[in-house]
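Justification of computing resources. Each target in the renewal requires a structure prediction run like the one illustrated here; the chain below, 561 residues long, is used simply to show the kind of job we budget for.
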Amino acid sequence: MGSGLRSRFDVVKEKIRLQGDESRHEHADQWSNRDLIPLPPSRRTWGWLHYFGFWTLSSLNITNWQTPSSFLTQGLSVPQAMMIIVVGRLLISSFAILIAWCGIRWHIGFTVQNRYTWGLRGSYIPLLQRVLLNFIWNAVQCWNGGRLAAVCLTAIFPSFAKMRNFLPESLPATSDQFVGFIVFWALSTPLLWIQPEKFKIPFLFTSIYSALGMLVMMIWSLATAKGVGSLFNTGVALPQGSWSISWLLMAGINQTVGGVAAGITNGSDFSRYSRNCKGYVVGTFTSGWITGVLVCLVGLVTTSAAQEIYGEVYWNPPDLLMMMMDSGNGSPASRAGVFFLASGFGLTSMFENICGNAVSGGIDLAGLWPHYINIRRGAIITFVAAWIVQPWQLVNRAVTFIQVLSSFSVFLSPMIGLMAADFFILRGRKIRLSHLYTGTESSYWYWNGFNWRAIVAWICGWVSTIGGLIVTVRQDTDAPTALSELYFMAFFVGFFISAMIFVALNKLSPVLGLGEYDEVDVYETFTREEATKLGVIHVESQIDALESEHSSGQEIFEKKE
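Resulting structure tokens:
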């Protein structure tokens, strides 16, 4: 009985085991599969428009729309809030390009990129953090997207918002919210089958639709209110006992950059698909910076004008949209308009969640079990995990938990510092691709697969700011001000401390393989032009050399005859 069960298990195990084209180096083993190897030119299909769309999705969303609200509620003026956003988005674009450069140059993602810094086994430390974040943020995004789905359903069926609550009282959610979550989750699921190489059309369609929807919403609010409203002219009104303006500005910039720290870390997951570096840089700067700032401005203008119309401030688009159609009791024209607008926000949330959480989660899970998990399987696992995470418990009940989750950049920024220092300073942008997939024989194996230098430097990066995070969450007013001030600069403090300590440790205790790279294009990764710039022998050059040697040998043989 036991042997029979074991035999059936082995059959199932073999069936789900990933297979690859060996001639294309797609073999699946402990360290590699088709989605982890350096991407060949045939799979690098992204140009500037793809990256413009990718960063547009991270800009055309509810979170970015609401960004000015957190700064205005602290007492800052509109110009000060917009200054934070302009500086913050510029830094986001700069860090995104910095960390993604390894993917642009060597065509590997975050999962593999960390192996040369942390060690092949040590890379599981940042990987597990990212897997946890992807699980939780995917679930939270699905729940927030469900609110937009509920708005769309109310626009179609006005009685939807008044449906009887069939959920138990112990569940911190209403029936319409839960149904919206189910609808949003179900409609998002088919997108998991789209390969990242083919994201161009979804990016283009979603970006245009969402941008038009936001512009229409702003124009309608300005026309109805006959002006921008009083909120837009809000001056500085710092509460008594508040921090000084300079510290609030610093905290705002830190919050803006830290809020997308997870997206910065996985930059290589998508930059590796680039056809050239120009496309990534142009697409990231034009959309990540400019579009991000414009969306915040549009959200601020719309909210200010809407205050004149309804007498209240609605920073959350679903709440404003419900008010615009009087919770479903409005005219058919108003409901049709709200449906169009809510669909735009919903599409953006849907595809942003797929790219930023599900696909990224799929790549990270593939790094944990390359034998059995590829991007698609990992993305499906991440998406199904939304039911296990139960976002209705997190969003509607655990406010403190969400606040801690949003501050996770305390741990991510030191990781980013390690990535930047190792690639640019210590290795001079040169890595040995073949040693990222070879286990104990690799120069990146270090001590039992762990690079202790990275672990020490990473801990030093967050230990100085974790106290400020605890104080902020507890709202402890008696804590030393230095803790809070360090926390207001947590992203930058963690980044530079970890980077400097890591460089110092490598100088004191050097590792093997710094600056080394494969002299031959082992994985057929590069075009002839790329190989020439990197000083790598291209595959076609090897073939030409062999043919030349063969021809020379044949000529010598014929002369002897």
